[in-house]
Amino acid sequence: MGRSPCCEKAHTNKGAWTKEEDQRLVAYIRAHGEGCWRSLPKAAGLLRCGKSCRLRWINYLRPDLKRGNFTEEEDDLIITLHQILGNKWSLIAGRLPGRTDNEIKNYWNTHIKRKLLARGIDPKTHRQLISAPATATGAPSGGRREGQQAAASPQSSGGAGHSSDDDSASLGGIDLNLSLSPPSQPSSPVAAVVAN
DNA sequence: AATATGCGCAACCGCTCCGTG
DNA sequence: ACACGGAGCGGTTGCGCATAT
């Protein structure tokens, strides 16, 4: 439609960030905070679009990021939350201190989905598959795109088109506070969920 | 040792939501 | 009440690395 682009693409860098760009962004945010992303690149002297800066900061440069492998505890928590929330990665990330929505999304698509399939569980509905998949040992046959296509289909647009309508009531009394909160406070994520 | 294939992460794109005038 | 602009979110893609053949 007639929507103006978020930035002047002709004059912005794309692709991987350089160390210098990272340093500029970090230095600017340390000095001025996360203000208006649209104007930030210019103010910070970066040839990037504001969206790109925001993403880089949130997913990679933020000082409170955990990074590193997910624990079993986090695994289980993600699965539980996904069962309730569907692909609401930002909400799930809000319950996992130090983790980002992008990181969780990637982790889901690469690890957890396969793990659930191996257990004979449909990662979309969290229900037992009727017949265990032939590739129950883990590797989904075919290319990686296949898996992603499967993940993308019906519930993608807009609403939370997942299975929570009748699942959420049967989660053993786990009462989630779904209001948005900064991904910080609870020292033990699982404890926090159960506590809520 | 060289090549092919698969995997995982980082980043981009387009859409939707929300606040403001 | 409506239109516009900015921010945020989820899906998808590209690239580099690791492993298998």
UniProtKB/TrEMBL annotation:
<dbReference type="Pfam" id="PF00249">
    <property type="entry name" value="Myb_DNA-binding"/>
</dbReference>
<dbReference type="GO" id="GO:0000976">
    <property type="term" value="F:transcription cis-regulatory region binding"/>
</dbReference>
<feature type="region of interest" description="Disordered">
    <location>
        <begin position="127"/>
        <end position="196"/>
    </location>
</feature>
<feature type="domain" description="HTH myb-type">
    <location>
        <begin position="9"/>
        <end position="61"/>
    </location>
</feature>
<dbReference type="InterPro" id="IPR001005">
    <property type="entry name" value="SANT/Myb"/>
</dbReference>
<dbReference type="GO" id="GO:0005634">
    <property type="term" value="C:nucleus"/>
</dbReference>
<dbReference type="GO" id="GO:0003700">
    <property type="term" value="F:DNA-binding transcription factor activity"/>
</dbReference>
<keyword id="KW-0677">Repeat</keyword>
<dbReference type="InterPro" id="IPR009057">
    <property type="entry name" value="Homeodomain-like_sf"/>
</dbReference>
<dbReference type="InterPro" id="IPR017930">
    <property type="entry name" value="Myb_dom"/>
</dbReference>
<feature type="compositionally biased region" description="Low complexity">
    <location>
        <begin position="148"/>
        <end position="157"/>
    </location>
</feature>
<feature type="domain" description="Myb-like">
    <location>
        <begin position="62"/>
        <end position="112"/>
    </location>
</feature>
<keyword id="KW-0804">Transcription</keyword>
<feature type="domain" description="Myb-like">
    <location>
        <begin position="9"/>
        <end position="61"/>
    </location>
</feature>
<feature type="domain" description="HTH myb-type">
    <location>
        <begin position="62"/>
        <end position="116"/>
    </location>
</feature>
<dbReference type="GO" id="GO:1901141">
    <property type="term" value="P:regulation of lignin biosynthetic process"/>
</dbReference>
<keyword id="KW-0678">Repressor</keyword>
<keyword id="KW-0805">Transcription regulation</keyword>
<dbReference type="InterPro" id="IPR015495">
    <property type="entry name" value="Myb_TF_plants"/>
</dbReference>
<keyword id="KW-0238">DNA-binding</keyword>
<feature type="compositionally biased region" description="Low complexity">
    <location>
        <begin position="187"/>
        <end position="196"/>
    </location>
</feature>
<protein>
    <submittedName>
        <fullName>Uncharacterized protein</fullName>
    </submittedName>
</protein>
<keyword id="KW-0539">Nucleus</keyword>
